[in-house]
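[job 4417] fold queue: 2 targets
>>> target A
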Amino acid sequence: MTEKWLFINSGPKSPSYNMALDEALLDLHSRGEIPPVIRFYEWNPPTLSIGYFQEAEKAVDLDQVRRQGLGFVRRPTGGRAVLHDRELTYSVIVSESHPDMPETVTEAYRVISAGLLHGFRNLGLDAELSVPAGREERETLRKPKSAVCFDAPSWYELVVGGRKAAGSAQTRQKGVILQHGAIPVGMDLDKLVSVFRFSSEERRSEMKRKLEGKAVSIEGLLGRTVSMADCAEAFREGFREGLGIDLVNFEPTEEQLALVRKLEEEKYASDLWNFRK
C-alpha cells in the first residue's frame, strides 16, 4: 500500500510566515501529530533569505534590500543567501528514522531530489542530479567562495545543461529532516547581484557573467512564460513519482496555526533572530 504524505500549497506568504510554518510542521511531525509533509510556497514580498550560519551584514547589502522593498529572513537551514523572487519554493518534512531516508545528509539529498528531478522532467526539461567529479569541485563545496547560492551546484542538486536549476538546504532537528529549496521559475540576474556585497562594481559584473553560465530558471530553459500553477502541478506529480508516495491535500488547523504565529512573532519576525551575529 502506498504511503500517504500531506501536501500543502501555501501560495504567496510573508518571509516570517514561510519559515515559521516550516518549523511548525517539523515540530508537529516530531510529536507524531502529522505524517510527513510536502509543502510548496511563494514569497510576498520577494525576499532575501540567508543561511543559519551567515552574518547578515557580511553576506548582503541590507540597504539595497530595504531600498528595493524586499523581505529579509534568516532560515533555520544552512547554505548561502537566496533571492526568492519569481520562484516556487518547496519543503519536505520527514523523520530521520523513515525507512526510505538515508542517515547521511548527502544521501538524503539524493532521495528527496528525485522528486525535483521528476518535476523538471514533467515540464519537458532534461534535468540531472549534480555529482561534483573532481577534487577541486568537491573542495569548493566545502569552502564556497561566494555568498550567492546559485553560484554553483552542491551534491545532488538539479542541473540542466550543466547549469544549476534548483538550490536546496537541509537541517535536522528533533529527529526530523527539514529540506527546503528554491526552484526559480524566472530569474532577474541584475536584481540578484544588486543585493550582495562586492569589493567593486567590476566584481559585481563578473559575478553576473558567471551566474549567466552557471544558473538558469525554468522560463529561461523553456523560452516562454510558465504559470506558477503549472509548475506546482509538475512538481507535485514529481514528488509523488520520485518518492513513490500519495499526496493528500492538507490545511493546518486553527490550533496548528497558533503555533505558526507564535514561532513567527517570537523568532522569524524578530531582529534578534534575523540579524544575530
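>>> target B
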Amino acid sequence: MAATDAALWEAIQHDDAGAFEALYQRYWQRMFAAAYARLAAREACEEIVHDIFLRLWTERHRLQIDCFPAYLAAAARYHVARHQRQAAARPLHYTDAPETASPARADYNQGETRLLDLDLEKRLAAALGQLPRRCQQIFLLSRVQQFSNDEIAQQLHISRRSVENQLTAALRHLRVLFKAFLLLLAIW
C-alpha cells in the first residue's frame, strides 16, 4: 500500500530522502504537464519542476503543507507566471551614442514608476493590515499565491462561500481606501 502524501511529508520533515523521492515520483509528471500546458517549453518546465522540488527539500522544516496537490498546483502556476514575466522583460541595450539609438528602442529610466509602485505596495500592506487576520490570509492566498477559491477552502478547511465572502469584504475595503489614490494618479 502506498504511503499518503501526509505521511510522506512528515517523513520528509524528518530528513527522509526516500520519502522525498517517492513524493517526487508521484507528482513530477503532473507538475511538468501543468507547466508545459502553459509554456510549451520543455527546458523551462523541467527547471520549474526542479525549482519547486528543490524548495520543498530545502524548506522542509519550515513549510506547512496540508494538501500537496493544491500546493504543487499553486507553486507551478506561480513559477510559470514568474517565468513569463521574466521572459517578457526587455533587456537594456547600451550605446555610446544615444542620439543614434532609434526612438522605438529607446529605454528610459523607470525610477519614478518604481517609486510609485513602492508607494502603492506600502499602501496595500497598510490597507491589508486593517483587515482581520483570516481575511488577509484568504486575500493573499487568492491574489498573491493565485490559489483558486476551492483550493483556499480546502486548505483552510472552510466553505467556498466563506472564501468568497472574505474576498468580497477585502476587495470592498481596498476599493474604498484606494479610490482617492487612484483619482490622484488619474489627475497627475
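[job 4417] complete. Note on B: The helical segments are 5-13, 17-39, 42-58, 68-88, 111-129, 133-143, 149-156, 160-187.
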